[in-house]
Design a protein that fits this description.
The chain is mainly α. About 65% of the residues lie in helices and about 5% in strands.
């Protein structure tokens, strides 16, 4: 909510008629949570929660005395009671989040039932828009052939919800969907509520977190749940929905089969930057685990398909290829063939699929005659599809076979491509040692680039014995080679060079890969190398660095061998922290445009890999809006973007939600690929004004941090960053960004400000930038920019969202923990906040924040009175913990619970 003017009157929480079912679900689930707390925690805990809730509401409605009572109540809580108190509120937020997800599914179904009103950014909506612009089916088909979208999943920064609890959430969601049935009898409705109550109760009785800390395996299992339990099931319906929309919009293309346009990647298990737990061994283990899950899924589906395809040879024909392949496989797997009942031998599809399943099992067990690649399994399944098409089987199993084929083509034998990431500084150290180049780290990037070109040209080898660190680095490339052979060429994604600052950082990887024997000697290195430009300065230099790299003869040869394609990753987190949101957004926008121009000059296809975070302060937000706001040519059918661990459940937690998430993304990519937005006549002027906004905004943001050591001390006292640093599997200190050992990484930087309800990185400096532009050009031109320039509209909309979620009154409670520094910094923070709210309202022509976004405004208002008690309690626990020397123990456990509870409430971390 917004500063001291954010009194929330409960009666103002608006539910439209179309959202009545959501209101009923929230009310019903809220009652169940209350009953759960009373039953499991006792009357005392229930009364405590209710009293705190009512006092928080009273305080928001203007009763200032209520805060004093609430503070006194919370200060008296023992740590164990505090944990249960937090668990109660956290459970409520989980249920509200679930109800909202299910309502999104409900709304999508309503749109699909109404042929006259397609859902915005659904497939039907986008195809009809394109058709109205004169696009025909042939153009759509050509565009689809060139589209490739790859969400890349990352670990959650502070928690890994156990599979047990995630599955309970899924069961609750399924029961809520069942309750949509208008023909349920009162008894059936009561029984369904009983099942929801059962899942909630067993969830309450299950330990939420892992007291022993989060391991790499824990992180991997968390991400794999969404890949195997949600996305594996969801992928075929995504394509079926698109093909149905194509059929209805372009009936002349009714038989079009959409190629694979969406696949998935992961950083978990391959991200070595700052994580000592990621090693060559862990990379192999990660892909081995993913392979086993993929093969198990295919095995189970083949067995199910065999049970379904019961056709008898006496009733219908079957292709000779099926019969021949069955005889061949019976020779390879005699035990499986012998185990078939006699009657099944007259059912050719069933017998064949049982033997295909036997070959999958042989692959899983590394036994004789395995599938060497997914394409071999795909070919076996295509035989069934061809036979069914030729023998009256279009409605007798072809649909299920096509679904399995799409899964194999999407997930291969690896589920998700594993990206490898390492810091450029690590490579520089190894190269300097291996070439015995004194002063290598001190040399400039051009000097290093020339020496690397020389080493590559001469095919130089390392000089002398290497240190263990250098050997470990080369072992990574040997592991990449091994994984490509065993799990498929697509199992390993690009090699990402973080903190890339010059062409030498890419050439270094090329030389290390050759030393690590990645690929046959004398041949091109079979690896995509993606520089990651992170800081504000590096993002601005990225186009020049890539220009220099593409002029390099050896690297250009490498790219030709890779199909003249280059991935460039842009980091949103560090650039946002360096200069603030407005300056960072504009810098990233310009860099993309210049990169498009650079690649076009050299005839190279660009894929921008967007390193977005989960919040506005790291360019989170609606993916389709980000696509539409991108410069012309920056997408061109290819999109790669990180999906932060804390947002995966929100965007991919349920099949219906995952389907909608990807539908919006695919639709947006298709739209800008087929019909890129035309340049507006005033665009050049707008860009010039945006440059002025960025400069003034950056100046204000950096002015707040003008004494970085002092401000970092303030930050460390005014947020729970010291608790966040105790959670997670990796170091949260950004030693590669700064010489300061106290400076955190960008993700926990944002996370900590979100926890304190300040959300400072998401809006600070914007007011100063907007005011400078208004003073120079007048208000009307900025209103015009908001109404007619998608980039500017998305920027202001995202800032509006952050301002609405922030609460400067509560942020002040945290800030006072900083003592004298509170008086130094907070008044300026509050002034900029109030200025930002005022200017956003003026430019967007609104009377209150999110006036035009009723759904989001309602979601914030629903949560605020419930998250307030957790915030107040967290401040109290921080005081207790810090005053006692920050020990491990019950207070820290309660603080950790509060971190996760507030994250559930705010629906965002870093």
């Amino acid at each position: 909510m917004s500063s001291s003017t954010s009194r929330t009157i409960r009666a103002n929480i608006y539910f439209a008629e179309k959202d009545r079912a959501l209101r009923e679900d929230v009310h019903r689930l809220g009652e169940l949570v209350g009953e759960l707390v009373r039953e499991q925690g006792g009357e005392a805990l229930f009364d405590l929660v209710e009293t705190a809730r009512k006092l928080a509401i009273a305080h928001r409605e203007g009763d200032d005395a209520a805060y004093g009572e609430l503070k006194q109540l919370l200060a008296a809580l023992a740590p164990s009671t505090a944990r249960d108190f937090i668990r109660a509120f956290s459970t409520y937020f989980q249920m509200v989040n679930m109800a909202e997800k299910v309502h999104r599914i409900r709304r999508r179904r309503a749109y699909l039932r109404d042929a006259n009103a397609p859902q915005p950014f659904g497939f039907v909506d986008i195809l009809q828009r394109l058709k109205a612009q004169g696009v025909d089916g042939d153009e759509i088909e050509r565009a689809l052939d060139g589209i490739h979208i790859q969400p890349v999943f990352m670990a959650h920064p502070t928690e890994v919800t156990r599979r047990t609890l995630l599955r309970k959430e899924h069961k609750i969601a399924r029961h809520l969907v069942e309750m949509m049935d208008p023909y349920l009898t009162p008894h059936e409705l009561e029984a369904t509520l009983g099942q929801i109550r059962q899942e909630m109760t067993t969830g309450w009785q299950t330990v939420e977190g892992l007291d022993e800390g989060i391991s790499l395996r824990d992180e991997a299992e968390h991400v794999l749940f969404f890949l195997t339990d949600v996305l594996y099931r969801m992928v075929p319906p995504l394509y079926e929905s698109l093909e149905s929309a194509l059929k209805s919009t372009f009936p002349e293309h009714a038989g079009l089969r959409v190629p694979i346009i969406v696949q998935f990647g992961t950083w978990v298990g391959g991200d070595m930057d700052g994580n000592p737990h990621v090693t060559p061994k862990s990379i192999r283990q990660t892909l081995a685990r993913q392979r086993s899950l993929a093969l198990d899924l295919y095995y189970r589906e083949c067995v199910e398909l065999a049970a379904h395809l019961s056709q008898s040879v006496s009733r219908v024909g079957v292709s000779e290829e099926i019969l021949h392949r069955t005889r061949e496989y019976a020779g390879h797997f005699p035990e499986a063939a012998a185990s078939l009942p006699v009657r099944h031998r007259q059912m050719p599809y069933r017998a064949y699929l049982r033997l295909v399943a036997a070959r999958i099992k042989a692959t899983y067990d590394d036994h004789a005659f395995p599938y060497e690649s997914p394409s071999e399994l795909e070919a076996d399944l295509e035989l069934i599809a061809d036979s069914l098409r030729a023998n009256k089987g279009r409605h007798a199993g072809l649909f299920a076979v096509r679904r399995l084929l799409r899964r194999v083509r999407t997930f291969g034998f690896y589920i998700a491509t594993v990206d490898i990431r390492q810091n450029a500084l690590v490579h520089r150290r190894v190269i300097g040692e291996a070439l015995q180049e004194g002063g290598w780290l001190e040399a400039d990037d051009e000097q290093r680039a020339r020496r690397l070109e020389q080493a590559l040209e001469r095919r130089e080898s390392p000089v002398g014995a290497l240190s263990s660190d250098a050997r470990r680095t080369l072992a990574v490339f040997q592991t990449i080679a091994h994984c490509r052979r065993k799990y498929g060429r697509e199992s390993i994604g690009p090699y990402i060079v973080s903190m890339a600052r010059g062409p030498d950082d890419v050439l270094s990887v090329l030389l290390l890969a050759k030393w690590g024997h990645l690929g046959p000697k004398g041949e091109a290195v079979p690896l995509d190398i993606a520089p990651l430009f992170e800081t504000g300065e590096d993002v601005e230099r990225a186009p020049k660095i890539m220009e220099r790299l593409l002029e390099d003869k050896l690297y250009r040869e490498h790219l030709r061998a890779r199909g003249d394609r280059q991935i460039v990753m842009l980091g949103y987190s560090d650039s946002y922290r360096d200069g603030g949101i407005a300056a960072a957004r504009w810098s990233l926008q310009k860099a993309q445009q210049e990169l498009v121009e650079v690649m076009a000059r050299h005839g190279v296809a660009l894929t921008v890999f967007h390193g977005r975070g989960g919040t506005v302060a790291r360019s989170g937000g609606a993916q389709h809006d980000a696509v539409l706001a991108a410069p012309r040519g920056a997408i061109a059918g290819r999109l790669r973007m990180t999906e932060q661990g804390e947002n995966i459940n929100t965007k991919y937690g349920l099949r219906g939600i995952a389907l909608r998430t990807l539908e919006q993304t695919v639709s947006a990519v298709l739209l800008v690929t087929v019909r890129p937005p035309a340049a507006h006549p005033a665009e050049q002027r707008w860009q010039s004004i945006m440059e002025e906004i960025a400069v003034a905004s950056r100046s204000a943001y950096q002015g707040l941090l003008s004494d970085p050591d002092d401000f970092i001390e303030y930050f460390r006292a005014a947020t729970p960053i010291d608790v966040i640093e105790r959670i997670g599997s990796r170091s949260e200190r950004a030693e590669h960004v700064s010489d300061s050992l106290t400076e955190p990484r960008a993700a926990p930087w944002v996370f900590a400000w979100t926890q304190s309800r300040c959300l400072l990185p998401s809006w600070y400096g914007v007011a100063t930038g907007l005011k400078a532009a208004i003073d120079a050009h007048g208000e009307d031109v900025l209103v015009e920019m908001f109404e007619q320039w998608h980039f500017f509209r998305v920027l202001l909309s995202d800032v509006s969202s952050a301002l609405a979620k922030a609460d400067l009154d509560i942020a002040a409670r945290y800030s006072r923990l900083a003592g004298e520094r509170h008086d130094k910094f907070f008044p300026e923070i509050r002034r900029e906040f109030r200025g930002c709210v005022d200017l956003i309202l003026r430019l967007t022509r609104q009377n209150e924040l999110l006036e035009a976004s009723r759904t989001l405004r309602r979601a914030i208002r629903l949560r605020s009175p419930y998250v307030d008690p957790m915030s107040y309690l967290q401040v109290d626990l921080l005081e207790r913990w810090r005053s006692s020397g920050r020990p491990d123990g019950t207070v820290l456990q309660a603080l950790t619970a509060s971190i996760n509870g507030i994250a559930h409430a705010m629906q965002g971390t870093g």
